[in-house]
Amino acid sequence: MIRFVRRIAALCVLSAALAACGGTRPAAPVSPSGPATASSGDAARPTSTFGHHAFAVPDATTASAPHSPSPGSPPAPPTLSPASGGLAPVLTHGPRNRGMIVAFTFDADMTADQGGRAAAGERFDNPGLISALRALKVPATVFMTGRWAEQYPDQARSIGRDPLFEVANHSYSHYAFTADCYGLPRLSADRLGADVERAYTAFRAAGVAHPMPYFRFPGGCHDDRALREVGRLGLTAVQWDVVGGDAFATDADAVARQVLDGVRPGSVVVLHCTRSAAPTTERVVRAVVPQLRARGYRFVRISEMIAAAGPA
Ligand SMILES: [Zn+2]
Predict the structure, then answer these.
(1) Running DSSP on this structure, what letter comes out for residue 176?
(2) How far apart are the CA of 216 and the centre of ligand 1, in A?
(3) What is the CATH number of the domain that holds 235?
(4) Which are the contacts of 280, defined by CB distance < 8 A and separation ≥ 6?
(5) How far is the CA of 46 from the centre of ligand 1 (A)?
(6) Disulfide-capable partner of 108 in 57, 120, 198, 273 (CB 3.0 to 4.6 Å)?
(7) 77 falls within a domain
(8) What are phi and psi for residue 213, nearest 5 degrees?
């Protein structure tokens, strides 16, 4: 029973977060929790949108951050300028007037306490999805938890070394950074930064050479304290404006319609790279990519979406 309750809680977290954070449309189909929790988490907090931030490249003050380039590494990726008070800037979507670009993002969710379930055979990865993205040549950003990278180091390394993809940070534990985040266990306030850094450590241990300085909060839940911790590390927080609704969906066509209905120029779409909780995602991608290309869209990674707001 406890296991059942915990599982339902985890399902609610994922699906409710998507329903709450991605826009006005609820995820479809509705999760076991229903959309009732959609008013919690970050939904109550207005987030900055792209146009409020200037283009910036990390400066020397971020040199000690976990993503800092080492000699001989590629140039530092673009980030948004810090918000006032040292808060991390928040990207919800890219520019609406810099061409038909769209960023697909995939959350590789695995929570720190899910190792037992993985050992029992539950699959938190989705190799078929990654293969589909490669076959379709879709650049994408994977927001990976450190725990996921520990569970699937070969896949983490393969994704991290493929120039088609960017690996970004979705925390180590996938625990909440705020109170009342869909029932997720909450990190203590003094552990927020350490959890983010631990994910980078896990990425490097897996062989991900250049994880990006972009962070997605578990459940999307954040407040000023959380943003300050992420800002201290020189990271840009990345939310979304289009909810794919693939979490716990069984109808790929419905998810595909939701994506197609939601995408606008500059959109950031959130989907999942977690097969057990999002089993339709590969089919959704195979369906929507050709249709979006037919409309004239070009797929970009988050770094390019941020750079798109730079000087014309
Ligand atoms: Zn997540």
Answers:
(1) B
(2) 8
(3) 3.20.20.370
(4) 246, 249, 250, 251, 252, 255
(5) 20
(6) 273
(7) no
(8) -85, 45
Cα–Cα distance between 36 and 16 in angstroms, integer?
8
The domain total for the chain is 1
Question: What is the CB-side half-sphere exposure of residue 2 using CA atoms within 13 A?
Answer: 0
| Distance (Å) from CA 60 to ligand 1 centroid | 30
Q: What are 258's two structure tokens?
A: 């939701």
Question: 220 C-alpha vs ligand 1 centroid, how far in Å?
Answer: 8
Q: Please report whether residue 184 resides in a domain.
A: yes
> Which pLDDT tens digits describe the chain residue by residue (312 residues)?
344 334 433 433 444 443 333 322 222 222 222 222 222 333 333 333 443 333 333 333 333 344 554 566 678 999 999 899 999 999 999 999 999 999 999 999 999 999 999 999 999 999 999 999 999 999 999 999 999 999 999 999 999 999 999 999 999 999 999 999 989 999 999 999 999 999 999 999 999 999 999 999 999 999 999 999 999 999 999 999 999 999 999 999 999 999 999 999 999 999 999 999 999 999 999 999 999 999 999 999 999 999 997 655
Distance CA 242, CA 146 (A): 25
- Distance between Cα 175 and ligand 1 center (Å): 9
The 3-class secondary structure across 188-246, one letter per residue, is CHHHHHHHHHHHHHHHHHHCCCCCCCEECCHHHCCCHHHHHHHHHCCCEEECCCEECCC
**Beta strand 165-169 pairing with 55-56:** unpaired
Question: Global pTM?
Answer: 0.81
Q: Which domain holds residue 118?
A: 82-307
Measure 253 CA to ligand 1 centroid, in angstroms.
23
| Residue 50, domain member (yes or no) | no
Q: In angstroms, how far apart are the furthest CA atoms of the chain? A: 57
Q: Is residue 73 part of a domain?
A: no
